[in-house]
């Protein structure tokens, strides 16, 4: 059985860059590595609807985007649909790297409701995704921590330079991003779901050393 390693962080934190580098470092050490990223906007109807809501495509006064629980359910259903493939990957690889997972849902929900990492909605997300849907629990979660203003500037740059990457409603809300960062740090401090490692996203993490720790 492989290890499920999750990379979490704000939009613009550099999760994809870290995933690329860490995957290469793991491969250099002979580890069979698979990757997955959530939300799966192009592969799952629930994620597709969530994206439409985030870009205001479901009509004026969109009841879906306005409901924290409705958005959380769409993201959770995406992971539920992906769970069989994730289990297969864990059975056939040493490491499965996932960009965003359950903690992302918990952090953004709590931030939207202005709750902290111990808030009611965090428990609700855990009960829904882990206990009811039974999706695999991470072995370790990596928080790529960056100042909110740094992540925001990276997200703006990505929106300017990458076609089709305009910022969505969550990414464009600076206050929401700051609150989400605080919740993420609280989840990490509480070892929510599994142990966490907090990485300084303002510089390039030592992925070689990180790969050694993850395989150790």
From TrEMBL:
CDD domains on file: TMPK
One Gene Ontology MF term: ATP binding
Domain Thymidylate kinase-like, first and last residues per copy: 7-184
GO biological process: dTDP biosynthetic process; dTTP biosynthetic process; dUDP biosynthetic process
Any Pfam family matching the protein: Thymidylate_kin
The entry's keywords: ATP-binding, Kinase, Nucleotide-binding, Transferase
Family classification: Belongs to the thymidylate kinase family.
Protein name: Thymidylate kinase
Organism of provenance: Pseudonocardia bannensis
């Amino acid at each position: 059985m492989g290890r499920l390693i999750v990379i979490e962080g704000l939009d613009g934190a550099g999760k994809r860059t870290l995933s690329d580098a860490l995957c290469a470092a793991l491969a250099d050490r002979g580890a069979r590595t698979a990757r997955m990223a959530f939300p799966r906007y192009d592969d799952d109807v629930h994620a597709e609807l969530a994206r439409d809501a985030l870009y205001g495509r479901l009509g004026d006064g969109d009841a879906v985007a306005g409901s924290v629980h409705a958005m959380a359910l769409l993201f959770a259903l995406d992971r539920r649909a992906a769970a069989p493939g994730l289990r297969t990957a864990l059975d056939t690889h040493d490491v499965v790297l996932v960009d965003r997972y359950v903690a992302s849902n918990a952090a953004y929900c709590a931030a939207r409701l202005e709750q902290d990492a111990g808030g009611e909605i965090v428990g609700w997300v855990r009960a829904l995704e882990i206990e009811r849907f039974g999706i695999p629990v991470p072995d370790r979660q990596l928080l790529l921590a960056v100042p909110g203003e740094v992540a925001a500037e990276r997200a703006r740059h990505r929106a300017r330079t990458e076609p089709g990457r305009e910022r969505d409603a969550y990414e464009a809300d600076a206050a929401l991003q700051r609150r989400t960062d605080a919740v993420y740090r609280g989840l990490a401090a509480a070892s929510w779901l599994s142990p966490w490692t907090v990485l300084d996203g303002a510089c390039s993490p030592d992925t070689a050393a990180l790969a050694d720790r993850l395989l150790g």
